[in-house]
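Chain entry —
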Amino acid sequence: MNDLDTFSALLAPEGQSLLAELRDHDPADELAAATRLRRDHPAPLVSAALGQARLRQRAVAKFGADARLMYFTPNGVEQSTRATVAAHRAARLAALGVRTLADLCCGIGGDAIALARAGIRVLAVDRDPLACAAVRANAEALGLAELIEVRCADVTEVDTAGYDAVFVDPARRSKARGGGRGTGGRIFDPEAYEPPLSWAVEAARKAPVAALKIAPGVPHDALPEDAETEWISDGGDVKEAVVWFGTAVDGAPGPTPGGRRATLLPAGDSLLGAGLPDPEPGPVGDWLYEPDGAVIRSHLVADVARQIDGRLIDPTIAYLTADRLVETPYATAYAITDVLPFHVKKLKALLRERGVGIAVIKKRGSAVEPEELRKKLKLGGGRKSCTIFLTRVGGAPSMLLGHPAADAP
């Protein structure tokens, strides 16, 4: 039985019964569960059901409660868009007036689901028959089958004329032995994407509106200047970058050509860069600001510096400092109590003197590993906490001590 036959068997009544029985399955009891279930069900079907139960449990982090109803492949769980990010993108496309969209390289359908929920009719295309089967099953399970058409095909051969928009999510993993979409290690060269970024860009330019999902670490010089690039973080973690093309279908403001944008979820704050030069470095003030990763990846630290009337602590370090507290969603503020040359023994003595038992250690531009430093500090059991920044100030290895602004007296 091949993978597609096994997947089809999961959708049949016997497979559905097994999946229902494994809904609250404890992975630690997998061997016992497999032995018990194989008494009444074929071994390949039991293995497939247990595998799907594991994938659903892994997928909860991305899809929440929907994961309990959805169907996944191992690559699909790994590469699919987090539901919150997909919902943001779908909302932006809907706001641009998009009503029909071709989702190329759709995988297991994470984006197609979000798009359909935003009221957009989707053509979901992937060349992997197993992925296409998963999209169909997911659309059916979530009540979205009427809005999602699935086509198993090479995306480079699909005619997208007549659609309001195109969304492309190229595979960013190399092929492992035996082939398959995205089964190996991560790819960092955009031209090694599958299909290549250059093809995706040309396909995007033919559509009224287009969005291309790419790795957040993409070099800025590889980005097309006639598009806006948006870096998205969720809960402080940078998840992806999106290259936006075109103008709005219904006349609303479209993407800004050449623009660089940072969007922070779940709140949805979005900062479009003004093309500012890097701020000048200066002495550490009373407050230190740690920009969100999306701000750093989009090269918008200067825009945040303008917001807070701040400066860099070092020309090569993405920490900002200011003399007064200014609230901004794009950076976390810390009240700084000490700025010292890096010295482990002095730091250890200072923390002991202050009764600090809890240390949050952050680093940027330092060769010191936080966990190694933590072992050397041998903190006691005190309840006081301190945030320690290992970094450079004016080129010199330094340590800054403080606490989050939210904890300031």
Q: What stands out?
A: Confidence is low (pLDDT under 50) at residues 174-184. The longest strand covers residues 331-341. The chain has 13 helices and 16 strands. The CA atoms of residues 70 and 131 lie 12 Å apart.
